[in-house]
Recover the amino acids of this structure.
């Protein structure tokens, strides 16, 4: 873990409730694709957020924070960052945390699964795999409640178009009549598209109450527990 101060460069709305935050650490940040950082609000108050940047972006860290009045955890963190941004002061962060980072030594095909702003966790991996010209098949599934939440849809379609072994699949839970893609729960789309998950390495991010059932359904669909990664596993049974 690396403890650094970071300037809050920008806070930009991506949707009504999701914000992109850019932080410039006062020294190059060291982390792996899939790691998270903790924003230190107080000695015993640290808020965890996935790093959306790829590891080569050591001088600028990107976060995606979904903040609303119903989500005090994220809203208070965003307000903390906004205060630093307005004052021109630095925030204290802890970088390079987590146990569910990309296993680069593996040759298995990959399923990246994200619900909502869990997108940032797997985005880091997707961008890194593209940058290192990985030839592993990668299937990126991003589930949201409605089309308006697909704030990075064009970017990820471009990522998928960059290499023949990359596939991006957006999934909308409550789709409009105009939507022509997958609908419903994102992990159900994975199981519909892939006959068995036994040969895959799987990385997942989303609400804790989502990850447990997804893990169980994937195992029933052939996935091997030892090839499944999510930081939420440390907090759920």
């Amino acid at each position: 873990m690396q403890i650094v101060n970071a300037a809050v460069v920008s806070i930009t709305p991506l949707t009504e409730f999701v914000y992109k935050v850019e932080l410039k650490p006062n020294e190059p940040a060291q982390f792996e694709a899939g790691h998270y950082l903790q924003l230190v609000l107080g000695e015993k108050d640290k808020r965890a957020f996935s790093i959306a940047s790829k590891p080569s972006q050591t001088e600028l860290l990107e976060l995606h924070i979904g903040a609303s009045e119903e989500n005090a955890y994220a809203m208070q963190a965003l307000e903390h960052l906004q205060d630093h941004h307005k004052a021109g002061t630095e925030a204290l962060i802890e970088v390079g945390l987590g146990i569910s980072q990309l296993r680069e030594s593996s040759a298995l095909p990959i399923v990246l699964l994200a619900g909502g702003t869990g997108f940032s966790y797997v985005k880091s991996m997707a961008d890194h795999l593209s940058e290192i010209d990985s030839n592993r098949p990668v299937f990126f599934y991003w589930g949201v409640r409605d089309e308006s939440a697909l704030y990075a849809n064009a970017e990820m379609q471009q990522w998928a178009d960059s290499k023949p072994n990359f596939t991006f699949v957006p999934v909308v839970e409550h789709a409009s009549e105009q939507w022509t893609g997958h609908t419903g729960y994102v992990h159900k789309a994975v199981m519909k598209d892939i006959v068995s998950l036994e040969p895959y390495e799987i990385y997942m991010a989303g609400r804790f109450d989502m990850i447990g059932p997804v893990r169980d359904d994937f195992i029933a669909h052939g996935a091997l527990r030892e090839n499944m990664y999510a930081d939420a596993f440390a907090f759920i049974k």
